[in-house]
Design brief:
Helix content is 50%, strand content 6%. It has a two-stranded antiparallel sheet. A hairpin with a 5-residue loop joins strand 1 (3-4) and strand 2. The chain has one domain (3-64). With 68 residues, the chain is mainly α. The chain has helices at 17-32, 41-46, 53-64, and strands spanning 3-4, 10-11.
Amino acid sequence: MAVLTGEGHEVGAGMPELYARIMADADAFFAKGELGFTSGELCRLVGRPTTPIGDTVAAEVVDGLDLS
């Protein structure tokens, strides 16, 4: 079962069509950078500065290394 979304992405893997379309469309938006915004709204909501996910992952990788 393959489904083509409006962006031309083929999806399937036996998942329901609606879910497959949502996932494929979200992936297309991420690739275009359309879901990456810095309005500052999240920072205001949580009451602290936010950290980019890449910085968080990098810090956890370094913290997890046993350098002894």
